[in-house]
Amino acid sequence: MSGAPGSPDTPDTPDGADGADAGSGAPGAIDDLELPGSAPLPDELPPMPPDDPADAEREPLLVYRGGGVGSRREARERALALLYEADAKATAPADVLAALPLPAEPFAADLVTGVGEHQREIDELLGSYARGWSLERMPAVDRAVLRLATFELVHRPDVPTGAVISEAVELAQQYSTDESGRFVNGMLGAIAADVRT
Asked: I need a labelling partner for 101 at 20 to 30 A (CA). Which of 47, 149, 162, 179 fits?
């Protein structure tokens, strides 16, 4: 019975298979396959670089709640963009938030909502400290940064004063004029001295 299953003449494999067991190390096994022109994979990955000590002092990541993940710095940056948009469109910050296709990060949304709810109070406070400047004459980015930081100084006592001012100065330096960092620092320093005592 030549050719019958189980006979020495016919291997017990499906048609077209060569009888090699995949993964067994036998010739023709899948582990031996290499793609043309590809380098073999390393047996282990290189070690990770050492942790940066500055990372330990950075603020923790926000918890994901549907709007994205990021640091408080990124949330402030997002809030700044939304406040700038509201100012440029002469619309309420809440309307800008409502028009977003995805919800903003919780911290960014809290900042934008807070500025919108207290904008009259914030603008009066900024006007009283801006010697020789009206709020309307300030660069729009400076105005948005100052509103954001003033809201935090007055209504978010859980956020350290240094963090508020430092972040605001960095945002002003990054997105506004060369003199904006010093201007924002001076304004917020004076406001903080009065409202955070």
From this structure: 149
Tens digit of each residue's pLDDT (9 = 90 or more) over 133-166: 788 899 999 999 999 999 999 999 999 999 999 9
Cβ–Cβ contacts within 10 Å for residue 113, how many?
Answer: 16
- Side-chain half-sphere exposure of 68, counting CA atoms within 13 A: 15
- In angstroms, rounded to a whole number, what is the distance separating the alpha carbons of residues 70 and 55? 14
- Tokens representing 12 are 């017990």
Please tell me the total count of domains within the chain: 1
Is 44 part of any domain? no
Structure tokens at 179: 């003199």
Q: What CATH code is carried by the domain that includes residue 140?
A: 1.10.940.10
Does residue 176 lie within any of the structural domains? yes
- Which range marks the domain in which residue 168 is found? 72-195
